[in-house]
TrEMBL record:
<dbReference type="InterPro" id="IPR011990">
    <property type="entry name" value="TPR-like_helical_dom_sf"/>
</dbReference>
<dbReference type="InterPro" id="IPR041662">
    <property type="entry name" value="SusD-like_2"/>
</dbReference>
<dbReference type="Pfam" id="PF12771">
    <property type="entry name" value="SusD-like_2"/>
</dbReference>
<protein>
    <recommendedName>
        <fullName>Lipoprotein</fullName>
    </recommendedName>
</protein>
Length: 501
């Protein structure tokens, strides 16, 4: 009996020693494998800052899809190059790596971070304002992607790292829009003064939830008007809700990100990087001529002619040979208007939505009879704000007297109100190409004359959407084919859900 007791005690002693040594080894291994500089719990504010910087984009997609397709397709920019290095939207040439660039960047970078952020703040009852801001950010990001491509992965986007969902289903744009509008409505109500503030790491508004609510309703106004052609009753409903909720009321409400000269791509303005490298883009003759015809003082802000000659836009659809024979200022690009480089520096702000846009949308709502405000007053406010908005770029803007003169020379005409509003919105969204291109397809003003360059991909019509990347047909074929069956062929001429004939 004594021997058995001694044996038991020895076994227990060895077990205790083994347990202690194993625990010590595990702790040592954990210490060796841990990064002393790693952030174990990423603060919500830092992640929100990153998301806001991501939203401006990188030179890759902003150079290719924004300048290359959107701004040139609606004839704000032009070029004579016929290679992949400049603006395929000038001549509707099928350069797929340009067309798919926003899709590539959004789904490989932006949406996985958005999904992670939303999952984290959803689980924290103290993160109410972070959650509401994330919902608005998600709409701000996804609506530009669906407006460019139509049906896209939405509900399952970015869930690969969270739910191991690597082949997300494509959702119909109708479903996406319904959900985005609901998100905006709920987010506006979710913001709370009693919850912790999102604070100074919020690059948009410094944690001011009053302005976040205005952004929620202003985006609702934008998305509501997007439905004009496909569902006028729903458009009126959402426009009315937005106005009742309270939209932007002055220039302080614009949503933008301030950038820095250095600090890597995520801190710099992507247009600043693009224009440092590409020197051949010119303002379109369509855009410059419109400003000249209306005596628009913005021309002096936007246009710079290297040769010192008069402002002269470059006609869309020319190449080096036809420039020599058909160019209104000859074959030397130095005689054509470039964009004022002061507006596209690395530290220039990036605009996502402006007060000018909101005022012009209110004017349209009044014209359509969906709002009791005075259309002319909102139109004038929108034009004035669009000119004053350039002050954010550190350049001189037209004086009050100059704007008054412009409005007197171009008075609001109720009989042509939608056309006038569309043209001014086109001008007001210069350097906000996602919105400018989407709104042009919705309202189709100004009236643009398409080009029909040999070998173009649209049969000489302005593109209605951009194409999905080829990788979707190798990595997610079943789902992208389902989107095609619902929406139509993956071509530049296929109209997305809200862009009906």
């Amino acid at each position: 009996m004594k021997i058995n007791n001694i044996r038991t005690k020895i076994i227990l002693l060895f077990l205790a020693i083994f347990t202690l040594s194993t625990t010590s080894c595990v702790k040592e291994l954990e210490e060796l494998n841990s990064d002393p500089n790693a952030i174990e719990e990423l603060p919500y504010g830092i992640q929100l800052t990153r998301l806001q910087l991501y939203l401006s984009g990188t030179r890759y997609e902003m150079r290719r899809a924004s300048l290359g397709w959107a701004m040139s397709a609606i004839q704000q920019f032009a070029d004579v190059n016929i290679s992949t290095s400049l603006l395929p939207g000038d001549k509707y040439i099928d350069f797929l790596d340009y067309s798919s660039s926003l899709f590539d960047r959004a789904f490989t970078n932006e949406y996985k971070d958005l999904a992670d952020y939303m999952a984290r703040v959803s689980e924290d009852p103290e993160a109410i304002n972070y959650h509401a801001a994330g919902r608005v950010m998600r709409v701000l990001s996804f609506h530009r992607t669906t407006d460019l491509y139509g049906d896209i992965p939405y509900f399952e986007a970015g869930l690969g790292y969270l739910d191991n969902e690597w082949t997300p289903s494509y959702d119909s744009q109708e479903e996406i829009y319904n959900h985005m509008l609901m998100e905006l409505e709920e987010a506006a109500l979710e913001f709370s003064n009693s919850a912790p503030s999102i604070g100074s790491q919020d690059l948009f508004y410094g944690g001011d939830i009053t302005r976040w609510k205005k952004l929620s309703y202003s985006l609702m106004l934008r998305l509501g008007l997007r439905l004009v052609k496909v569902d006028p009753a729903a458009a009126e409903l959402w426009v009315s809700k937005a106005i009742a909720g309270g939209v932007m009321t002055d220039l302080n409400d614009v949503v933008k990100t301030e950038h820095q000269i250095d600090g890597g791509w995520i801190n710099t303005n992507p247009y600043g990087e693009a224009f440092e490298i590409d020197k051949f883009m010119r303002l379109s003759d369509t855009f410059v001529s419109w400003m000249q015809d209306h005596g628009d003082p913005r021309l002096e802000i936007l246009s710079f002619v290297e040769s010192g000659g008069p402002h002269q836009g470059l006609p869309n659809g020319l190449d080096p040979n036809t420039l020599e024979t058909m160019g209104p200022a000859g074959g030397d690009l130095a005689n054509y208007s470039q964009l004022n480089q002061a507006l596209v520096q690395r530290d220039s702000p990036f605009m996502f939505m402006t007060y000018a846009e909101v005022e012009l949308m209110l004017a349209e709502a009044a014209v359509r009879g969906w709002y009791s405000g005075d259309a002319q007053t909102h139109y004038n406010n929108g034009v004035r704000a669009a000119m004053e908005n350039w002050s954010f770029y550190g350049v001189s803007t037209p004086t009050t007297a100059e704007v008054d003169t412009y409005l007197s020379a171009n008075p609001f005409d109720a009989a042509n109100a939608i056309e006038m509003i569309g043209e001014q919105y086109w001008a007001a969204t210069f350097l906000n190409p996602w919105e400018g291109y989407a709104n042009w397809r919705r309202i189709e003003y100004p009236v643009l004359t398409p080009v029909n360059y040999p070998g173009n991909a649209t049969g000489g019509t302005i593109p209605r959407r951009l194409k999905y990347p080829d990788t979707e047909y190798t990595l997610n074929e079943e789902n992208v084919r389902a989107a095609e069956a619902r929406q139509g062929p993956n071509s530049y001429t296929t109209r997305i859900w809200w862009d009906k004939n």
